[in-house]
What we know:
alpha+beta; Rhopdopsin 7-helix transmembrane proteins; 13 strands; disordered N terminus; disordered C terminus; kinase
Amino acid sequence: MARAHGDGLRGHVNESGLGAAGIAVGLAYLALSVFVILARLPRQDRLNLPPVAWPLWRRTRLPMTLAAVATGAFAVASSLLPPGSAVASGTWMAALLGWTGAVVILDAVSRGKRLRELPALQRGLLTALVVVFAAVTLTRALAPALGAAIAIEAQVVFAIAMLVLLENVMRNAEREILWHVSLPGVATGGLALVSLLLYAAVILQHRFSPPLIGARLALLVMVLPLFAAGAMRAIRWRPRRLHLSREAAFYSASLILGGSFMIVLGIVAELVRDYGTGLAGVIEWAIMFAGLLVLAIVASSGSARSRLMVALSRHFAAAPYDYRQEWLRSIATLSADGGVSVAQRAIKALADTADSPSGILLTHDRQAARLRYSEGWNTALEIPAIPAGTDLFRRCCERTVVELDPEGVTAPFWLAVALPDPRASGPLGVVLLGRPRVAQPLHREMAALLTVVAGEISLVMAERQAAEALAVARRFEEAGKRFAFVAHDIKNIANQLGLLLDNSQRHMADPEFQADLIGTVRDSVDKIRAMIRRLDPSAADRAGRLDVGARLRHLLAHRGRVVLDEGDGHSIVAIDPITFDMIVNHLLDNALEAGTAAQTVIVALSHEPGRVTIRVIDQGRGMSAHFVRERLFRPFASTKAAGFGIGAFQTRELILQAGGSLDVESEEAAGTTMTIRLPTVHEPAAERLETAGIDHE
C-alpha cells in the first residue's frame, strides 16, 4: 500500500517542480563530495597552525565523502522514483547512516580514539543502525513484499536510534570536540527528525505527506552549508576550548531568545498557511525546520555564545564573572597534564579567562635583562625579545594587565598579563593574549580576574622552577659529598705515603722494608682507584662481594693490639673490598687512639640469618651521649687539629649505601662499641675463594 501511495504522489512532486529541485540538490551533494576530496587549504590558517597529517585527513574526509555521495544519490532518486520505492528508501537510510557514522568517527578522531574505544552505548547504537540498514536492504532485495511491509517501521526505529546516538555524542563532547562535531551533528539530527516525522505520519495516515516530503528536500538544501562547514572544520583541525561562566544568566537568556524566536516562526507559518499558495504546507514545515536549525547552530557556536555572554555581562549580569567557577576552571587547567607543558597550561588558563583563542609566554631573562619568547598556545607566532628598558616592560612591572598597542611590536596580540615573581622584583614572565572572538573593551572586572589567575599561575611556575633548581642543587650536593670523601681519603693516603718516605731514608736497604714498601704502594694505588670508582654515581650498583670473615682476618693480620673474636659460620656481603677496608680501618684507628698502649681492641664477628654483625669494642675514654647524638656524625666538625671532620660521617654513609646500619654505644671513661650490621647475600661455595678478598693481599 505504501508503494501505491508513493506512485500516486510522483505526479504531484513533479508537477510542483520539486523533481528538478531534487536533481539539483543531488548534484550539489555530489559536488560537496568532490570538494571534500579535492579541497586544498592553505598550509597555515590565520592562527598559523601546521597542516593536518594524512591519517587524520583520511579518517575525517572519507566518511563525509561517502555520506555526501549517498545523500546526492537519494536526492536524485527521490526526484525520479516514488518516496516508498526500494531505491529511494534505501538511499535515504544510507545517507542517514553515512552522516551519523561521519559524526561518530569525527568525534572519535577528535578524542584520539578508535571506534572500539568509544562508550558502549555509542558503539551499540551505531551497530544497531548498521544491522537495521543491512536487514532492510537484504529483505527488500530478497523478499520485496515483506521488505515493503517492514520498511516504514524500520525507518522510524532507524531515526529514533539516530537521534539517541547523536544526542549522546553531542552531550558528552567536550568544548574543543564540540567545535568539530556540532555542525554536522546538528545537520544530521535535523535529517533524522524529519525522517521520524515523515514515516510516523505514514504509519498514522497510511500515506506519505506531500508537505513533509517537500520539507525534507528543503531541509537538505538548508543543511548542505552545515555539512560543508563541518567538513572544512574537520580538514582544518583547529582545536578550541571555550569555557563559559555565568551559566544561569546565559541559559535563561538562551531560553527567552529561543522561545521568542520559535513564537515568531509560528506566527509566520500560520500566516503562510492562511494566505499562502498551494505550497503553504511545504513552506510551513521548511520554516519550522529552518528555525530549529538556526537555534541549534547558535547554541553550538562558540562565537554566538561569546557574543551573548558579552551582552549579558554589559547589560544584565550584576557580577560579570562567577569567581568560584573561574577559579576552579583555572586550577583544573593548571593541574591537568595530558602531555602539555606548564607554560602552555598557564597561557590557556589566562586565555580562557579573557575568551582569547591564542597566546604566547615571554619569560624574564634576568641575566640578559629582557623578555624572551618561551612557548605558544594555539599559535606559532613569535615576537622579538623585549629589552628591560622599554615602555612595555616598565608597564608590566607596574601593572598586571596591560592593553597593547595594535600597531606596536606585539601586534596582533591584545593584552599583556604579567606574572608577578613571588621571590624577586619584576615579573616572572608575561603572557600575550590574542584578540578575543568578540571585540570587547578591557573592563575592570576582567582585569581583576586576570590578576587573580596570574597570581596563582606565578606561584605554580615559581614552585616548578624552585623544584628544578632544588633537583640541580641536590645533584651538586651529592657530587660534593663524594669529592669530600675522596679528599678525606687522599689525606689519609698522603699521610701514609709521607711516613713511608720518612722511613725509607733509614731502612731502604732492608729487604723486609722494601717488601713492605711495595705492598703499601700497591695498597695505596688500589685505594685511589676505589676512590675514582666512587666518584661515579652508579658505582654502588657495581659493588663486589666478599667473605666477611676472610677479609677481617686479612685486615687484622698485621694489626697490633687488635683481637678478632670470630663466631661460627661465614657470611657473604655485597660491598666493594676497598670500601669495606676503609670502614673497618677507620673504626679501628679511632678505637686504638681512644685507648692506651696497654689496652686492646676486640673485633667481634657474629653470623645471623640474613645479616652479619661486626662489633669494634674498645676500653678507651668513651663519649658522652650528647656528643654521639649531636657531633659524632656531623660533617666538617672535627676534634682533631688536622682533621676534616668527615671520617665518621663518611663511614656511616658508606655503610648505609651498602644497605647496612651503624650503631654507637659509648660511656665516658668506660669505652665505646661500634656495631656494624650488613645484609648478607647467598653465593655458591665455588665462588667464595674468589670473593674473599685474597687477591688484594
